[in-house]
Amino acid sequence: MNARFNMFENEIALKFGKRFANTNLVLEQSSLPKSTRELVSLRASQINGCGWCVDMHTKEAAEAGETAVRLALVAVWRESTVFTEAERAALALAEEGTRLADAHQGVSDETWAEVREHYDEDQVAALVCLVALINAANRLAVIVHQRGGSYQPGMFASFE
Questions:
Q1: Beta-carbon contacts of residue 108 (< 8 Å; ≥ 6 apart)
Q2: Mean pLDDT computed over 120-134
Q3: Ranges for the Carboxymuconolactone decarboxylase-like domain (predicted)?
């Protein structure tokens, strides 16, 4: 599968992409741990089948010190022992917030209560925004068939 459209070479797409990427700065400046942000982004991207974003968030997480074992187990986090209760709550929120069409209620009350137990107001806001942002990013990349494999950590720093 080849990319259908190069979002980095079209003026409109590039302008949008820069502004879109800059929204992530708010999340980077939040108190939500980078490891949690990358794990949530990775899990949503796995669910959405976004090779570009799986590539990006795996590499960004590794660059930030995440272990290969934890990265390998994100897809099966419920059946693993390497994630904290707080991370498990964030991963559940990522899954339920990504699979909206699969659950008539969206995010369950149980998951919401777990998230509220482990994260403060600002971190909850960051998590909710992150789930929305990564799902939008996945859709952009999947629509144009942006393939994974070429991402280099920090390559969008110039967008800031």
A1: 96
A2: 98
A3: 25-96
- Mean pLDDT to the nearest integer, 5-16: 88
pLDDT digits (tens, 9 = 90+) for 33-73: 999 999 999 999 999 999 999 999 999 999 999 999 999 99
Q: How confident is the model over 138-154, as pLDDT tens digits?
A: 999 999 998 888 888 87
Helical spans, DSSP H, in the chain:
11-22, 24-28, 34-48, 51-63, 68-73, 85-98, 109-118, 121-143
Domain 33-147 bears CATH identifier 1.20.1290.10: yes
**Which of 86, 119, 82, 93 has its CA nearest to residue 41?**
93
End-to-end CA distance of the chain: give it in Å, rounded.
30
3-state class (DSSP) for residue 48: helix
The token duo for 104 is: 């008539």
> pTM for the complete prediction?
0.92
> Do 131 and 42 meet the contact criterion of CB atoms below 8 Å apart?
no
d(CA 97, CA 4): 27
Identify residue 81 by its one-letter amino acid code: T
